[in-house]
């Protein structure tokens, strides 16, 4: 009996101690999980919007995600026109954005630090020109930008914890996340319980989404899921664990002497076939069990003469160039060169065996679903693989380098991470789980329509411009090699090489696109928003939205959405249907505030945040108030604003607000940017006309459920850019007014078989004739075309040149107002040029099939002839001139 009593007392004591160990509840307004660049940005954005209590929990010690603890220390970004960097000089389309938002604030500080310490904002002078930084130094800047909000008590930072359990409230139409339980890293026992009004998942692997039970997807999407043209029709060769590979980056820095590392376990020189000891002929005779292509592999030569391409591993992602910086020591990021990537499918036997020992079938699980201990097995082998590459570089490639004093044998791993192995705390993570969101972004929404090869793609806005877009993005669908091939003779116990699977390549490009608010919001759970790479898009789209700047913007968008949701005590899912609330989110991201740099919402190429019209143009464009052409990716804010263009905008603006008269005046000589500033100042505080929601799950009642409808309030097929075939189309810039002044002359350019048009004189491409009074410098009668595609004949016809041609008309000297129209009813045209009296009014202009651009200017004629020049010498592209009009302007009203 005594032993039973003692056992009972011990049990009571255990229960009592367990109860006492139960963590106390901490309450917060906004809980953010993950110290990634997205989590960091969301915390700052929410604090700036006045959220009183923000709690940021991370599973390590470092803020900054891929910048810092993942060590991707050369910035992948889209820089402004004329700048060097990834996405500009590297790609034929030269896709580019000016830096904006928190990303610009961050990079300005990083580059200021670099300038002070190293003597240059880009001390690495890397081959492709991205900005560079030391990860530890960047982490200090992330912390510096967040610290004011910590000091104010708005933001609480908790490190080395991860979520293990969720609190769910199930009383409403859908479950609501109300809190999370956190365990210290290295343990599974929670010691922290946080209740929150709203939670953002900015973690590496969607930890909150998983523990909450919110729906998500992972791995490859079958084509049947989202009808994406590049998705595989079946997944037989795409196992559940196939996805964009991870890479364990390494930072190496120059040594005073040889500093070789020891040979790692399982080292096999044949893993690095791109620089193998084998001859090229021997490499091509290797029999792999998957279709590996070796034709483009830069083999290191036996003669000891390496090509610049092969030696570019020293320069492609160099962080600091010791020859030019104050530091005088070179440091280099090794991130993906020569087979460093680590595919996640078909794991090596020793890895698979270790995983199976933890759980049957673990080796075939997607890394997203693995436990932290199972992921660590993958991580350890990815580290070993990266170290094997460094060993290979230090030993084999060192022997072949022309200058052995400039080899990796004279480099050692940086100790800035404070880790025992001198490697970053985490791998570079390209793809996580994908939140099943209110809308899943699809490849066809934004993929360039000009062809499958990026070399022939041309700049344009995306096929769909989401009505709830919060920021601009653009990149190519960049999958690194996701497959793993083994030698047929040795299987998964031998060496392997990564290879590219069909549909998982980098030749497809996106257009200039938007990110919709709906892709942050779970389709079937409240109290939760996605961020970082845990958002609503397909696997293909995820490969294009993972850059440094994009992940910061995702975090900012999530933080702004959360703040407006908390301010009004509404679910984030209501905001896309509420025009006023949506505009409040946009105001937080791109509005007049001293808190930070405005974020680019609309993907214009030529607008920088410093331009006075930046906010006005972005906000008007996002509301659909500015006339658009799919190819007009530059806004030209400093060009003159035509009266007709301003009137057109005023009509569009009046349709969006509840106001009888807009506070608007048009001043002669006003620029386009100045007009937008004036209009926005009078428009921004007026009440908006609310959206009309016709059905609960199909807002525009077009038969396309909202979950599949990218444009919620646009009935019909989800395509925004339509070929214009009717004079009733208000945004058709090529249309002429039905009323013309008595002194105006209009010239239509058409072939001899086109009947004369009322109100137009006809030019059939003949050489200038004094009796007729107008004509060309040479005979262009063979360059006349009619497409029979649009109703308006003066748009359906045109004269074209692929070179440079001049048209003249005899007119009295004086000031003339001239209007020209270019475009092609049947084909896209790029690179069009028009000059009037030596004044360039159209330069490198592109028009999509069935759309037209009308430009107007005032010029002074001094020689009795009005001169219009089209095309550029040896341009290789067409300029298609549909019609022109001109009328004299009294000298008192003339302006240059």
Automatic annotation (TrEMBL):
Region ranges (Disordered): 219-239
Recorded superkingdom: Bacteria
Record-linked Pfam families: FAD_oxidored (PF12831)
Keyword Translocase: no
Gene3D superfamilies: FAD/NAD(P)-binding domain, Galactose-binding lectin
Position of the signal peptide: 1-21
Keyword set, alphabetical order: 4Fe-4S, Iron, Iron-sulfur, Metal-binding, Oxidoreductase, Signal
Keyword Ion transport: no
InterPro entries from the UniProt entry: FAD/NAD-bd_sf (IPR036188), Galactose-bd-like_sf (IPR008979), HdrA-like (IPR039650)
Name the UniProt record assigns to this protein: FAD dependent oxidoreductase
């Amino acid at each position: 009996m005594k032993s039973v009593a003692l056992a009972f007392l011990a049990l009571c004591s255990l229960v009592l101690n367990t109860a006492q160990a139960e963590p106390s509840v901490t309450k917060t307004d906004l809980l953010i999980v993950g110290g990634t660049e997205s989590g960091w940005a969301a915390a700052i954005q929410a604090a700036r919007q006045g959220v009183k209590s923000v709690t940021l929990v991370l599973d390590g010690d470092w803020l900054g995600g891929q910048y810092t603890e993942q060590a991707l220390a050369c910035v992948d970004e889209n820089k402004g026109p004329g700048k060097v960097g990834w996405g500009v000089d590297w790609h034929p389309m030269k896709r580019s954005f000016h830096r904006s938002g928190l990303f610009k604030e961050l990079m300005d500080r990083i580059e200021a630090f670099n300038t002070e310490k190293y003597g240059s904002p880009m001390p690495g002078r890397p081959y492709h020109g991205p900005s560079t930084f030391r990860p530890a130094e960047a982490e200090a800047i992330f912390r510096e930008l967040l610290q004011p909000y910590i000091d104010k008590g708005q933001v609480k930072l908790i490190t080395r914890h991860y979520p293990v359990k969720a609190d769910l409230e199930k009383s409403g139409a859908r479950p609501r996340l109300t809190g999370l339980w956190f365990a210290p890293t290295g343990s599974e026992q929670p010691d922290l319980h946080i209740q929150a009004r709203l939670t953002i998942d900015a973690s590496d692997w969607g930890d909150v989404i998983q523990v909450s039970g919110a729906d998500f997807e992972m791995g490859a999407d079958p084509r049947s899921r989202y009808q994406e043209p590049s998705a595989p029709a079946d997944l037989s060769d795409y196992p559940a664990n196939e996805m964009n590979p991870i890479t364990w980056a390494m930072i190496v820095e120059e040594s005073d002497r040889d500093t070789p590392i020891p040979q790692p376990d399982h080292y096999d020189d044949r893993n690095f076939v791109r620089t193998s000891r084998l001859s090229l002929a021997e490499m091509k005779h290797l029999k792999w069990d998957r279709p590996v292509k070796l034709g483009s592999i830069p083999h290191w030569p036996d003669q000891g003469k390496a090509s610049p391409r092969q030696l570019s591993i020293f320069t492609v992602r160099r962080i600091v160039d010791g020859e030019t910086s104050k530091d005088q020591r070179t440091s280099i990021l090794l991130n993906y060169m020569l087979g460093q990537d680590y595919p996640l499918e078909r794991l090596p036997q020793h890895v698979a065996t270790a995983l199976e020992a933890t759980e049957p079938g673990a080796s075939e699980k997607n890394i997203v679903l693995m436990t932290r201990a199972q992921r660590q097995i993958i991580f350890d082998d990815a580290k070993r693989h990266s170290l094997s590459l460094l060993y290979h570089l230090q030993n084999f490639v060192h022997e072949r380098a022309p200058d052995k004093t400039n080899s990796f044998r004279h480099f050692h791993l940086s100790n800035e991470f404070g880790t025992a192995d001198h490697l970053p705390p985490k791998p570079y993570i390209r793809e996580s789980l994908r939140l099943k969101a209110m809308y899943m972004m699809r490849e066809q929404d934004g993929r360039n329509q000009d062809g499958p090869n990026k070399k022939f793609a041309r700049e344009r806005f995306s096929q769909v411009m989401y009505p709830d877009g919060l920021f601009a993005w653009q990149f190519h669908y960049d999958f690194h090699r996701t497959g793993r091939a083994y030698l047929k003779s040795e299987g998964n116990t031998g060496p392997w090489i990564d290879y590219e699977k069909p549909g998982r390549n980098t030749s497809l490009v996106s257009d200039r696109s938007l990110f919709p608010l709906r892709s942050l919001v779970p389709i079937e759970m409240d109290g939760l928003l996605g961020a970082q790479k845990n958002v609503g898009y397909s696997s293909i789209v995820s490969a294009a939205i993972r850059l440094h700047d994009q992940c910061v913007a995702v975090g900012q968008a999530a933080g702004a959405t959360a703040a407006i949701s908390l301010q009004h005590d509404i679910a984030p899912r209501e905001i896309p249907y509420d025009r006023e609330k949506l505009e409040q989110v946009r105001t937080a991201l791109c509005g007049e505030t001293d808190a930070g740099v405005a974020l680019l919402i609309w993907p214009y190429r030529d607008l920088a945040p410093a331009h006075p019209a930046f906010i006005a143009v972005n906000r008007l464009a996002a509301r659909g108030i500015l006339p658009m052409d799919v190819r007009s990716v530059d806004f030209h804010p400093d060009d003159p604003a035509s009266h007709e263009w301003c009137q057109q905008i005023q009509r569009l603006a009046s349709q969006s607000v509840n106001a009888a008269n807009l506070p608007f005046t048009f001043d002669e000589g006003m620029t386009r940017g100045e007009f937008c500033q004036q209009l926005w100042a009078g428009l921004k505080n007026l009440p908006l006309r609310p959206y009309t929601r016709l059905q609960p799950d199909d807002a525009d009642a077009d038969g396309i459920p909202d979950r599949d409808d990218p444009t919620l309030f646009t009935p019909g097929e989800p395509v925004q850019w339509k070929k214009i075939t009717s004079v009733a189309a208000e945004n058709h810039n090529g249309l002429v007014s039905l009323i013309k002044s008595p002194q105006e002359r209009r010239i239509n350019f058409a072939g001899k078989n086109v009947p004369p048009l009322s109100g137009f004189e006809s030019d059939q491409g003949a050489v200038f004739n004094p009796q007729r009074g107008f004509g060309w410098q040479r005979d262009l009668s063979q360059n006349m075309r009619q497409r029979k595609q649009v109703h308006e004949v003066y748009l359906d016809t045109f004269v074209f040149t692929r070179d440079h041609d001049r048209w003249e008309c005899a007119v009295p000297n004086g000031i003339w107002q001239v209007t020209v129209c270019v475009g092609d009813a049947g084909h896209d045209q790029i690179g069009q040029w028009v000059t009037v009296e030596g004044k360039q009014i159209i330069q490198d202009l592109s028009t999509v099939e069935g759309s037209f651009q009308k430009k107007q200017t005032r010029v002074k004629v001094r020689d009795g002839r009005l001169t219009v020049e089209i095309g550029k010498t040896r341009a290789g592209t067409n300029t298609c001139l549909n019609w022109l009009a001109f009328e004299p302007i009294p000298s008192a009203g003339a302006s240059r």
